[in-house]
Automatic annotation (TrEMBL):
InterPro entries: Sec_acc_SLAP, SLAP_dom. This is Accessory Sec system S-layer assembly protein. The lineage of its organism: Bacteria, Bacillati, Bacillota, Bacilli, Bacillales.
């Protein structure tokens, strides 16, 4: 995604600063380190619609970039432009100093920072569309901040930088068990849940969603539904009241109700299992086919 706004052809320099993070911190890429510094090679995306002159321009800028430490992902600002509609367009190099190709596995929050580290804009970008970043490479890319995500009317043309927003304390998405579950679950069942949380795709940043684990009708006609409540946010989430619908294999709603949870808390970046029991009077279909089912929060 290049060539979105024209550059001043009399100017061959980049205006933005640099921001680098360890690949393990950003992508979970654990690699060996030898202590060497890396000079990244220019990589133009295959679908970039640019001419030879533009290629020379990016090659010149890339040649002037500082060396990176091994195993880093870096953003190096090139230029910034504010559109009449309020959007802010930022060109930057995405640099990979790892000795192998890497992929972004999920959307990443980025901040545009001013001369005093003040946040000028913030937005989550889907960088999975980049595909593979080649080993030890610099890829020019255009980032479009929508007007609603821009916090200042005047964006400085120099002394700014594009930065990854990484919560350093954030580790892999993990299982969090309520104390009652911790005491009642067998070790083998805990291990199964932990393995599930490790292997499934974690929720997107800021997203809270539900994954069905188990459903059954008891002898009294009540429907028991166990869900994994998944919190992809950087903050703890408290659920006080939760409306739920359950559909069976036919797609019909077989139960619906509203549950008061007394501030059930799901910690940041964790998944917590919880069982919801629909009493018989809330079960709408006694012969439900639960070979396939889903539970969800109704809209509206």
């Amino acid at each position: 995604m290049l060539g979105f706004f024209k550059r001043d052809k009399n100017k061959i320099a980049k205006d933005g600063g640099d921001h680098s993070v360890d690949s393990m911190e950003l992508l979970g890429e654990k690699t060996e380190t030898t202590g060497k510094e890396v000079k990244t090679s220019l990589n133009i995306p295959p679908n970039a619609n640019i001419g030879q002159e533009e290629r020379y321009y990016y090659q010149f800028l890339n040649n002037e970039l500082p060396l990176l430490k091994e195993n880093q992902i870096s953003l190096s600002g090139i230029e910034v432009h504010t559109e009449e509609d309020g959007r802010v367009l930022v060109k930057a190099f995405i640099r990979n100093s790892i000795a192998k190709g890497v992929h972004f596995q999920e959307p990443i929050p980025l901040s545009l920072l001013g001369p005093n580290e003040e946040r000028l804009a913030r937005q989550i970008f889907d960088l999975t569309i980049l595909g593979e970043l080649p080993p030890e490479s610099s890829t020019p890319w255009l980032f479009v901040f929508e007007k609603k995500n821009v916090f200042e009317k005047e964006i400085p043309q120099t002394d700014w930088k594009l930065a990854f927003e990484v919560t350093k304390s954030k580790g892999p998405h993990a299982l969090d068990l309520e104390e009652s579950w911790e005491k009642s679950l067998a070790d083998k069942d805990k291990e199964k849940l932990e393995q599930l949380v490790k292997t499934v795709q974690p929720p997107k940043p800021g997203e809270v969603n539900f994954m069905g684990l188990q459903s059954r009708l008891d002898d009294e006609g009540a429907l028991h539904v166990t869900l994994l409540i998944r919190n992809g946010s950087e903050k703890n989430v408290k659920l006080e009241q939760l409306p739920l619908n359950v559909e069976d294999a036919s797609g019909e709603i077989v139960a619906k109700g509203v549950f008061k949870l007394e501030a059930l808390e799901i910690k940041a970046n964790t998944s917590k299992p919880w069982t919801f029991i629909f009493p018989k009077e809330l079960v709408l279909k006694e012969d439900a086919d639960l070979s396939k089912w889903k539970a969800y929060v109704p809209q509206g």
